[in-house]
Each structure stands twice: as C-alpha cells, then as structure tokens.
Amino acid sequence: MQADWILAHATLITMDAASIVFPDGALAVGGEQLLAVGTSAEILRDYTSEHVLDCSGRVLLPGLVNAHTHVPMTLLRGLADDLRLDVWLLGYMMPVEREFVSPDFCRLGTLLACAEMIRGGVTCFADMYYFEEAVARATVEAGMRAVCSQTVLKFPSPDAASYEDSLAMARDFIAGWRNHPLITPSVAPHAPYTTTPEILRACAQLAVEFDVPLHTHLAETALEVDDCRAANDMPVIPWVKKQSLLEAKLLAAHCVHIDEGEIHTLKRANAGVAHNPSSNLKLASGFAPVTQMLAEGLPVGVGTDGAASNNDLDMFEEMRLASFIAKATTGNPTALPASQTLAMATRLGAQALHLGDITGSLEPGKRADLILVDLRDVHSSPAFARDPAAVISRLVYSARSSDVTDVMVNGRWLMRERRLLTIDVQPLLQAAADYAHRIDSFLVAREGSLFSRLVAIGGAEQEESYEVQIKVHLDDPAPILDALPQSGLEILRRAHYREYDTYFSFSDLSQGRLRHREDEFVDEQGQVFSVRYRLTLTGPAAERRFPNSALLSRSRFIAPATHSLRFYREYFKPEKEAEVSKDRQRWMVRFQEEEFFINIDRVLKPDIQGAFLEIKSRTWSRLDAEEKALKLSALLEALGVHDPRPVEQDYAEMADG
Ligand SMILES: [Zn+2]
User: Fold this and answer.
1) Distance, first Cα to last Cα, the chain
2) Of 221, 310, 503, 638, which alpha carbon lies 20 to 30 A from 422's?
3) Residue 224 C-alpha to ligand 1 middle, in angstroms?
4) Ligand 1: distance of its center to the CA of 150 in Å?
C-alpha cells in the first residue's frame, strides 16, 4: 500500500492503552492520518513510499500535549515574578494586558509560543486568552493543533467591554472554527472568582450547544476554596456543578485543592484536568492530588500554564516535576512512575482536552501528530536494552526538550533536524523586544505615581477635593459633648465606630500617603454590626493655613478596599507603615448653612491620653473651602473652644512617634 511517509527503524512508543515499545518500530502516514504502526519489518513489507525516513537511534512517540497554557503570554515572560497570585494577576498582568493586548499582540505571542513548543516536542495545546481568533489563526500558521478558548470575565477585558460582549465573541468564534482540522474552538470562563454564576451558566450553555470544550481554572488556591466555602457553603467543584459547568466537556486547570468527593464528581462528569506543576510550585498554590485523580480514572494532563507563571513552555520539565512532586508529596518513590507520567503528557492529556479520539497516541486512524527524540547525547546515555520500557524513564527523567529533532502535526512536518519549517523566529524576537520596551515604559510611568498605581488595580476614580479641618486635643471631651445639642447647630446624622487604620508612606513625600481603613460600626450596646473597608490616597501636607488655624488640603481619592490589606502591602511596597486605631463618635451637622463633620476620637493605638476634637468639611472648590474655614472657626466658638491650639500632626505621624 502507498503511504506519504514511512518512518522506520525507530524506538517506537505507541502510548496507546497497551503502551507498546517497538525496539525497531515503524509507522506509515497517509495524508493527515496514521495508516499503520508496528515493527519496521511489518510496515516496510506492507507499505511503500517515496519518503522513507530512517530513524535509527531516535525515539518515535506521539507529540506532547500541553494541557493548559496562555500562549500570547510569552510576551509577558519575566515581567513580574516572585509575587502572590492576586498581586501578580490583578496588580501586574491584568493592567498590562488591558493596555497592550491586541490581535497583533496575540498573533506574535502565539507564534513565539508555537516556536518554543514545537522545538520542545509539543504538537497540541489548550489555550485560554483574549482575541482567541488571532491565537487560532497564528496556531494554524504554525501548523499546530490546539483547543483555543475565548476568555469570559466579569470585568472589562482587553477584547470586550462587558461579559455580554465577550460571550458574543466566544459564540462567533466557536461558530466560525467548528470542524477545523487543527483548531477546536472553546469557551473559557476564566475562574469562579473572576466570573459570576450567571456567566458560568451562560458559558456552559454555549459549550453544550456547540458540543465544544469548556476551559476554566478551578480550585487553584486554598484561598479560592475558603472564599467559596464562606460565600456558598460548599467547595468549588459542587458549586460550579450547581452552575451547570459539569454538563459541558470540561477542561479544569489546576484542581489543586479538591477532595475525594470532588474527584468523584469530576470523574462522573467525564471532565479532564490539567495539572500544572511549575505554575503551582512557583505561585506556591499547593500540591494537586494527582495520584488520587489518576487512581479514580480521571484523565489528568500536564500543562505549562502561561509563560508568565512558569516561565517556559517546556513539557519535559513539567513531566519530570509532575513525577517528582507526586513522589515527594506521597512519600512514595513508586508514585507516578515514568510510564504514567508520559501518558499524562500524551494520551491522557489529549483525553483531558476531549481530543482523545484523534491524538495523544500512535494508533492507526489517529492524526499523525508525532515527534522524534535523539537520546544519544551525554545527558541521556547509555541505553539499557534489557527492559524495552526503560526508554520511557530516559525520556521522562533525563531527556531535555532540546533533544527533540523532528515534529509532525496532522501529517505535516513542522520541524526537521531541529530546523523550524513554519516559523521564522528572528523577526518575531525583534517584535517581542519592541513590546517589552513599550511595556517597560508604561510600568515605569505607572510606578512613578501612587495614584496611577491605584487606578491600575481599579482602585480609584479621579476625584479632587478640598478639605478644611482643625484638630484640638481635649483632656476631657465631656464639655463638648454637653455643648453639642445646644450650640445652635442642627444634627443631621450620628454614628459610632471603631476605626483601624494602616498608613503606607513612601520615600517620595510628594506622592502623598495611602490609608487602609477598617470601619467597624458599633451600635448602642457597643456591638459591631457592620464593617467597611476603604482605601484613601491623601495628598501631601496642608497647602494653606488659615488665621483661625484651620488647614486646607487637597486631593483625596477614596475607594472601597476590595482587596486585602496584605494585597495592598505587597502591591504598593510602602517604605513605612503606621497603625492607628481609635474609637470615633461622629456627628454630621449643619451650621450656618454649611455641613460639617464633628469627630470625638479616643486614640487607642498609639496609646494617647484624653481625646481629640476634629472638625472637617470637604468641598469641590477652593473658594468654598476658604469660606468654610471661616465658619469652622465660628463653629469652634459655638462648641465652647475659644483659644484653639490645633494639633498639626495627624494620627499616623503620632503613631510614628
Ligand atoms: Zn492558567
């Protein structure tokens, strides 16, 4: 019979369920497909071809499947490292992505990723990013196979102003790429914590409607699971099941923090899991229960995750790490042996991507996705022949991605003798350097201003205001408390809280200072009934002092603090921190047609005797502020404070000592 290619005299590893190793193996390729796999004698007897490749000394195996990545992120490699997931993602990746990610960015990043992956023996990958149309086109240009998943988020993303827009994009993308020989389109609700139940359900519906995979991040960190339990009274997998996610052909990346019941649930739903050893180690996410998942029969593939959290797309490294981590975490050196690890990187990975019927092993009828590896270099020599399967342990434990010499996808050569045939790397590297330069400039400008760093994490709206204020120390606040009801002012509102403030200050004082405030609202009985977190950027020191000693200051940006104090600390990296806590009674009053806040503060930390009377008012115009300063003086008189000796230090400075 006629074949387009015959690859003969290789050490051939089928990686099908039987996982046969032919010490002198061969296969025949016709068009996109594998026609036959067997011994060289059989194949050369049954097939003829104009192209017979002698693979002596090489190992022939199915191409590796990178089960989870974000290919365009090759352009963000090394941008920000050694950070916690939330600071890394919300503080750096997402702001830079909002500014730079475009179809051009995605095409370039994808081609670079494909070049790296082809050189490392990867023939198929599962991607999740923005402008997935551009990712898919570039992947086809490179000749690789991929599941391309269009991201859907609850906040505006680089390619969509709203989640409805990105869902519509995903629908168009899936409809346009269905039945493509290389690309399987898919939808990717990014993660439960970056989406909503409504988004998850809509994505599941879309994936079911078109019968395509749904790709998402699940249970990556312990924090995600804790938050899910706190909010929904159940861990992540049952919760996303409630949102219909398991009705789709699910590809779940990470699954680091899942229990036995959740593993069963995933198995019953025929879900696939992508295990990402480097990413989990680098972001200290934890150790996925890989051996339990495999024992339950879950298809678990291996993924590199994006180049910004790894920082490479080297599946040989991932295989080795997957195996070593499993051994170390179970205390069992027989856990995750080489053969099972290689299965994860090939057949099981393809199954996890729901592509198990077309790729992942060398079997007649499957697509010709294969690689040749040369194991004759010093680091993988010598070879023992007593056990034919020993070659698998050499592949997993000592081979390097640079040992891959030839790569074929869908019957087409993408690399021969280490030379890439579909990608010219040099101009791509130049374009990547240009992006790096522009991103550097963007970040340098942003790091230069506290305000723009606050805006970058969605933490502030531009809001400029003026504040007049005076603060007086009181040995005893009782006379003021008595004077309040009879001072001719109208009390509009009253509140009682305990405030816990953390001030961040920076060497450049002109930047101002950040205050993270936790307000605990206290009822009549002294019980806390509600808590509010706010972040305030205050401008530098007072800009004008009035004769009556009131101070006028400018520029305050207030936003609800949606992240933890720890997040802000790691994101802003303050030079100095000061903690202040106080018991505050607050009155909002009207006096001479102006509104003022009157605070009586007892400072608990630092420990300061007596109390402070603070009177403040904010306004949008400077003129108003000057007028208010005069009335503030009259208000002081009305409260019986005749000769105010204002305290100029603020509480943070007192805490500083
Ligand atoms: Zn990821």
Assistant:
1) 90
2) 310
3) 14
4) 13
**How much distance in Å is there from the Cα of 35 to the middle of ligand 1?**
36
Global pTM reads: 0.83
CA of 306 to the centre of ligand 1 (A): 6
326-384 pLDDT tens trace = 999 999 999 999 999 999 999 999 999 999 999 999 999 999 999 999 999 999 999 99
Gap from CA of 397 to ligand 1 centroid (Å): 25
Query: Looking at residue 112, what is its pLDDT?
Result: 98
Q: Note the pLDDT tens digit of each residue in 264-316.
A: 999 999 999 999 999 999 989 999 999 999 999 999 999 999 998 889 999 99
Tell me which residue of 139, 175, 135 sits closest to 151, measured CA to CA. Answer: 135
Burial tier of 452 (Cβ tally within 10 Å: 0-12, 13-18, 19+): middle
Query: In the prediction, which pLDDT does 619 show?
Result: 82
Determine the distance separating the centroid of ligand 1 and the alpha carbon of 274, expressed in angstroms: 9
**Centroid of ligand 1 to alpha carbon of 68 (angstroms):** 6
Give per-residue pLDDT as tens, 46-59: 999 999 999 999 99
CA of 645 to the centre of ligand 1 (A): 58
Ligand 1 centre and the CA of 254: distance in Å? 8
Per-residue burial over 154-179, b = 16 or more CB atoms within 10 Å of its CB, e = otherwise: beebbbbeebeebbebbbebbeebee
Residue type, 339: S
Provide the edge-to-edge strand list for the sheet that holds 611-619. Answer: 544-545, 551-554, 466-474, 611-619, 594-605, 576-591, 490-505, 513-522, 528-538, 556-560
- Cα(283) to ligand 1 centroid in Å equals 11
